[in-house]
Write a sequence for this structure.
């Protein structure tokens, strides 16, 4: 069995802050139906939704499925209703430092939540050879998620055919380098692989050996950035060979959304508490039933934790983990550069999704006076803007063109440290800039806490939810003690 883990849908490339968020949205009902054209079976009237930015592929693709199933919702609405615009996750443990905007942290639960709101059947499919798949499937099923297993190419193509034959499209996760659009040529030229991207299967032709896809990601990055007016990505053809290469690299992850259930009668009483908990960092809302619910930091506390760890003292502590590695100065310098790039790109994506969420949420909570919430939540926007920049995201990984304050600060620290070998002096030289970054992060944290508390006025938290931060801290300490104990036991030589 191959060593694999359950990875969900997220695109390798992230989001330009200045994206014009208006293209690609078909308004009004769509004409649906399955039509056999010669030897091809193609769904008619599947709306094309452009993801607009890298990092939103899953949300654009999910919007396609929602619209085709009869839910009149834009991608912007989805970012608000699902709560991903109000979610942020962070972990620092040992040598791990990772931050995730809501749009790429968790994608099963938010979509499942929206499916329940609108009375849709949600089914997730995944390769049966993923490591530990049994426990992961059991966890998902315990939360009410329908899960199906796929064993190899033949079963994957059968799923494609049966879903389309039943009259509905199939969302799949793929490695984008195998996709037909020229947008991905740079990945093929540079041998970049391993990224995850969501596309939608809308037809197939067994005789020609090709499938038809909606690809929301074309035009969302690089030199071809802009809405694909030439139609590439809309009912594009991909050979079965390349489809399997792309799909299998992403463990055959697939999602269907079909009508058939009763919608929630009072959606406000589901959406409001969800957004409240995401802002207030309730771990069980982010990762229900998972240990990460107690070991990670979420919502306002995630920004607080990130602010602490990006301070001068926090960076010294983190970098000390790598004392003594080969080429220590060069290694730590490179690490500083990538910390800056990573923070800037993730914060920019969060900024955009959060701004969208604030704009669209009131339409879904019409009976609630959101004045205090909006005032508190909007206070975070200028601080997000100060830490965000287009260039990190339009040309991800291209250090030569990044120009944002965060990435430039960390690059300056790295360059000085690499030239002098003195980390203390390099950090001290840019301590004011680092303090500015942490101040903005702390201000975002304060804004989210106040906004979550404003929603709690209408939807009070239960005693368990209210005490989850304390419970999480206690469990986190206990987990740390266990880890230390296991480490020490392993260090004791056998008698």
């Amino acid at each position: 069995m191959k060593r694999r883990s359950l990875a969900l849908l997220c695109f390798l490339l992230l989001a330009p802050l200045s994206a014009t968020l208006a293209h690609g949205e078909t308004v009004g009902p769509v004409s649906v139906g399955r039509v056999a054209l010669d030897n091809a079976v193609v769904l008619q009237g599947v709306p094309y939704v452009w993801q607009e930015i890298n990092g939103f592929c899953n949300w654009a693709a999910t919007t396609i499925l929602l619209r085709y199933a009869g839910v009149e919702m834009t991608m912007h609405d989805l970012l608000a209703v699902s709560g991903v615009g109000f979610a942020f996750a962070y972990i620092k443990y040992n040598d791990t430092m990772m931050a995730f905007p809501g749009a790429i942290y968790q994608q099963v639960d938010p979509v499942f939540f929206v499916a329940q709101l609108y009375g849709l059947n949600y089914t997730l499919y995944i390769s049966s050879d993923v490591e530990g798949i049994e426990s992961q499937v059991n966890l998902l099923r315990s939360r009410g998620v329908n899960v199906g297993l796929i064993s190899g190419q033949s079963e994957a193509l059968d799923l494609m055919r049966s879903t389309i034959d039943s009259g509905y499209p199939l969302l799949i996760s793929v490695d984008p380098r195998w996709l037909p659009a020229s947008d991905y040529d740079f990945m093929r030229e540079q041998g970049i692989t391993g990224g995850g991207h969501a596309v939608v299967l809308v037809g197939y032709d067994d005789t020609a050996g090709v499938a038809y896809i909606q690809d929301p990601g074309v035009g969302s990055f690089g030199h071809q950035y802009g809405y694909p007016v030439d139609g590439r990505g809309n009912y594009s053809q991909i050979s079965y060979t390349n489809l399997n290469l792309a799909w299998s690299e992403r463990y055959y992850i697939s999602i269907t959304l079909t009508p058939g259930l009763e919608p929630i009668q009072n959606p406000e009483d589901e959406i409001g508490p969800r957004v409240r908990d995401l802002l207030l960092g309730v771990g069980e809302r982010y990762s229900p039933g998972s240990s990460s619910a107690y070991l990670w930091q979420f919502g306002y506390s995630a920004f607080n934790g990130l602010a602490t760890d990006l301070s001068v003292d926090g960076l010294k502590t983190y970098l000390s983990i790598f004392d003594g590695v080969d080429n220590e100065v060069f290694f730590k310098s490179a690490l500083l550069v990538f910390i800056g790039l990573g923070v800037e790109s993730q914060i920019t994506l969060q900024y955009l999704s959060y701004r969208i969420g604030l704009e669209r949420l009131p339409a879904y909570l019409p009976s609630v006076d959101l004045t205090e919430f909006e005032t508190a939540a909007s206070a975070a926007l200028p601080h997000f803007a100060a830490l965000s920049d287009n260039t990190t995201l339009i040309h991800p990984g291209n250090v030569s063109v990044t120009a944002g304050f965060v990435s430039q600060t960390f690059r300056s620290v790295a360059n000085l440290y690499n030239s002098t070998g003195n980390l203390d002096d390099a950090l001290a030289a840019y301590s004011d800039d680092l303090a500015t970054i942490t101040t903005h992060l702390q201000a975002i944290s304060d804004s989210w806490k106040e906004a979550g508390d404003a929603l709690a006025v209408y939807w009070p938290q239960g005693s368990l939810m209210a005490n989850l931060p304390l419970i999480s801290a206690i469990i986190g300490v206990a987990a740390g003690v266990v880890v230390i104990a296991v480490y020490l036991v392993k260090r004791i030589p056998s008698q």
